Amino acid sequence: MDFHSEGDARRGTRSHRVSLTDHETVVTQMGDDGPAVVLIHSMGVDRRMWEPVMPRLSAGRRVFAYDVRCHGEAVGAPIPFTMADTARDLLGVLDVLAVDRAHLVGLSLGGAIAQTAAVAWPDRFVSLALLATTDHPFPDVFEARARSAETEGMPAQVDGTLTRWFTPEALAADGWAVRYARECVERFDPAVWAATWRAYKSLDVMGRLDGFPGRILLMGGGSDVSAPPEFMAALAERIPGAHRQEVARAPHMLPLERPVEVAEILDRFLPADRPGTPARCPDADPVPAR
């Protein structure tokens, strides 16, 4: 495994092209010092999903956002695959970047990947921030979405997907976040879309984070129809010691529609090397609920 780096001085980022076991991906880095934070995007988009929150999180931290296999610039990854494969990819990214231990932040599928990796290699991760995610699959729903892409194509997936992801107000405004997400879905290969939903069916982490040594934050949106508040509350009950935070009137795509609030919550949860920011530890006080 190896990588090639290039910078974008205007945006303060560097991109690393990383060779993994069976494919290549690209990692965007912002920040050069401090604890390592890895951001894992949701299904159907790519690492750009995190751009609205990376500037704030990179103050006193090294923040990395990578393309999950079959997404973004990791489109050459083979299919079919499993959640275990995505977890191994994450570990490979850490190894190539020489990151021994990291804080993980994952949204939806990204949160499932984070949990899968934390169950397999708990000593590699300091904390988990799990946004609008699940600890178990919904096989019938996931298979129906896979079959729909195979039989009807991606145009038929756009409206339903965006309705699950954004509030009606955001869809009506049709801002950058909605346009970005729409373009991602429209361009997705239907065979890969189907394979990703089927990979999601292999998620197997329920009740397996009991021994995770670090802090766990659960964040959800008050208007999320995919992972509604009652769902996230039940998830919190199944993960001992997890702290739950809800962003009022926020949808599934929290970092895209409500980046300021999401960045604020994560900034308070994650440790940073900067003046006036105390180092957090596994037994620190919980993030207060809103």
Describe this structure in words.
The protein is of the alpha/beta class and 290 residues long. The chain has one domain (3-137, 202-269): Rossmann fold (3-Layer(aba) Sandwich), CATH 3.40.50.1820. The chain is 38% helix and 19% strand. The chain contains 11 helices and 9 strands. The chain has helices at residues 54-57, 83-96, 109-120, 139-152, 155-165, 168-173, 176-187, 190-200, 229-238, 254-257, 259-269, and strands at residues 3-8, 13-19, 24-30, 36-40, 62-66, 102-107, 125-131, 215-221, 243-247. It has a 9-stranded mixed beta sheet with strand order 1-2-3-5-4-6-7-8-9, sandwiched between helices. Residues 281-290 have low confidence and may be disordered.
Short description:
The chain is of the alpha/beta class and 290 residues long.
Descriptive labels:
single chain; alpha/beta; Rossmann fold; nine-stranded mixed β-sheet; 11 helices; 9 strands; globular; disordered C terminus
CATH class: Alpha Beta
Along the chain, the helix and strand elements come as EEEEHEHEHEHHHHHEHEHH
Helix content range? 25-40%
Looking at this structure, what is the CATH superfamily?
Answer: Alpha/Beta hydrolase fold, catalytic domain
Strand order of the largest sheet: 1-2-3-5-4-6-7-8-9
Computed over alpha carbons, the radius of gyration is: 18 Å
| Overall spatial form | globular
Structural class per helix/strand content?
A: alpha/beta
What is the topological layout?
Blueprint: E1 3-8, E2 13-19, E3 24-30, E4 36-40, H1 54-57, E5 62-66, H2 83-96, E6 102-107, H3 109-120, E7 125-131, H4 139-152, H5 155-165, H6 168-173, H7 176-187, H8 190-200, E8 215-221, H9 229-238, E9 243-247, H10 254-257, H11 259-269
Helix pairs in contact: 2-3, 4-8, 5-7
